Structure formats: C-alpha cells, structure tokens
Give the backbone structure.
Amino acid sequence: MNSQKRLRVMLVVGTRPNFMKVAPLIREISKYPQKFNWFLTHTGQHYDEGMSEAFFDDLGLPKPDIYLGVGSGTDAKQTGKIMVEFERICLKEKPDLVVVVGDVNSTVACAFVAAKLCISVAHVEAGLRSFDRTMPEEINRIITDQLSEYLFTTCDDANQNLIKEGIPKNKIFFVGNTMIDCLLSHIKTVRDSIALEKLGLRKDGRIRKYGLITLHRPSNVDDPETLKGILNMLNELAKEIPMIFPIHPRTAKQMKNHELTDVMTMPPLGYLDFLFLMSNAAIVLTDSGGIQEETTILGVPCLTLRNNTERPITVKEGTNILVGNNPDKIMSVAVNVLRNGIPGKKKPKYWDRKVAERIIKILGP
Ligand code: UD1
C-alpha cells in the first residue's frame, strides 16, 4: 500500500451484533489519523431505537457518516437493497478498503459490492462454520470469506475451515475476538440501571439467582408449534427460578398469540444493561451467536437452543451446551445445570483487549 497516502477505510455496521464488533476497531483506528481516513456506514438493517441507537449511545460510537436506511424485508429484498445503496456510496466515496463484521445480510451485501468494484474487503470474524446451510448466516459467512482479502479469525477451527475452503494462508490472520475486546473494555462500567429491586431480584443488597433468555432465530421463532413448545417450557422453568426475557422484535411479532405467564418480559435492552444482566445470571438460554461467546468469557452457563454452532470453541473450552429446541431436553439440562453447575473452563486464546489493536496494525499502511 502507498505509505504517502492515508488509507480510506469504510467500516460497515447494520445490525445489533455488529455494533460491539466495530466499536473496538473505531477506538483503535482513531488513534492513527495520519494513517487512516475512515468512515462509518450504517445500512439500517436494524433501525428500532432499542436495536440500534441505544447501542451507539452505550458504546460511545460516533454517528454514522452514512445511513442507508434499508430496513426489513425478505432476505433477497433486504440484501439487494443494501447492495444498490452501498454501490452508490462506494462509487462516491471511493474507499481503498471496506471492513465488514459478522455474518448478517449487511455483511455479505457490502462485501459483494466492494469486491465487484475491486475494493479490498476485510472480514472480521471470518471462518466460522455451522455446516448448516439452512441458516441464512452460513451462506453469508461462506460468500463473505471467499470475497475477502483480509480474513480475521477468532479461533483455530476458523483457520482450519478457511484452509479447507482453499483460502491462501497469507490472507488469514488469527487475531482473536473483537466482541470480547468490547466486553472486556466495558464490563467495569456496567450498572444496574434496570433496577433489579423492581423485578424482585435484589433483596438487602444481594442479587437473587435468576435466568436470562434471548430468542430470535427463525428456526426457533418462525414456526408457531416450535415457538409454543419453547414458551411453555420457559413458563415451567420460571417456576424453578425467576426468568427474564428481553424480546427481539422478530420474536415479539411471532409471540402475539402466546402468553408467558411466569416469565418477566421486556423490550430489547441496551448493551450495558444486557451485559449487567448476563454477567449476574445463574443461567442463560439463547440462540444468539455472540452470547455463546460472551457467557464463555463471563463464566456463566449457557444453553444454546440450536443443534449446531459455528462457535464450537465455546462448547469445547467455554461454558456453552447445545440443547436443540426440544422442550423436555432443554428443561432437563437447565435443571441439571442449576443444581450442579458446569465444570470450570478456560478462556480461548486471544480473547482479550488487544484484538482491535492487532487488526489495525495489520491493516495499517
Ligand atoms: C438479524 C441477522 C441475524 C442476527 C440478528 C441479531 C440476517 C440474515 N440475520 O436477524 O444473523 O443474529 O439480526 O438481532 O442478517 N425488526 C424490527 N426492528 C428492527 C429490526 C428488525 O422490528 O430494528 C423486525 C422486523 O419485523 C424484521 C425482523 O425483525 O422483519 C427481522 O429482522 P432482520 O434484520 O431481517 O433479521 P433478524 O431476525 O433481526
């Protein structure tokens, strides 16, 4: 790269789990104004206050320089809309490098546009594979990795997956996990702003044992029978231990005809509130990708309501247990974990506060 010229870097975010992956990169890239001229584009895939703006506030992210406002739609409509809008931006702004994170539709759409315009693509969180192509994210991961020049990985199984897919070794950089860089940078500032007292979860200054739920995968929430089975199970589990459930908008839509009598429900929470709840939980039930990783670092038992994971390191080295979506199975594992806990596990390599530093060093001109 030309050392005389500042590198024009377009960072892309689109959905809730993107914001905490980009925040450490912005913190780091901002330290080198002589080397980088960077911009932030938000595709607007997530647009509700609670799914987007709240995260900008909590993470101290700057307002996006460019907002595409694409919103929701079918997979193809949403991806296509992002591509059309992002192409227009790339032609105007002429970045040297586009940085995408994670595996959402915004990730693949922007990588596709950049690659076709011969702009280098850096993919943060490359190489993860669930080997389940019924997940839209798996398709997004494979395509994005094929199109990228810099593949930043979080773990060794990701390196191996990429090598098996024919990606040259010199494009693969094992740097660690930016989501964990973000968590470790914020964990000391989390606070009880949702007032656990009000939920009956704190008495005489002491926090009671409780469980935390998140659900949004189409495989769990889009089929009414599957969703009903899970919700009934959650009602049962809430008789054993108080359960808190901040509800994702996709799930809220599908839940219109169901009642959660015993579970405490609430709208989606901001980053710091959720981190507070997660770090103090006795158990987390989720189908999220990132939460499997965050609970591993926090040492909190995590039951993942899926049959597979693109993050097997969280099972092997962390606190994650795959339980699928059979209500009886989930219930019995949950009761067992609450009674017996889980064996002590270790912290995956490079899941520390230096991940963004490693990435920006590699990208630097
Ligand atoms: C998306 C990602 C998923 C990620 C998740 C995190 C894809 C294919 N999926 O799923 O990988 O784990 O984000 O949350 O990119 N909605 C709102 N307000 C919003 C956003 C969404 O009401 O701000 C509702 C809309 O009804 C929308 C639905 O949620 O149709 C789904 O949103 P979408 O962005 O398509 O996918 P997610 O389920 O959020």
User: Anything to note?
Assistant: The first helix runs from residue 16 to 29. The pocket of uridine-diphosphate-N-acetylglucosamine is lined by residues 15-17, 45-48, 51, 72, 78, 104-105, 136-137, 216, 248-250, 253 (CB under 6 Å).
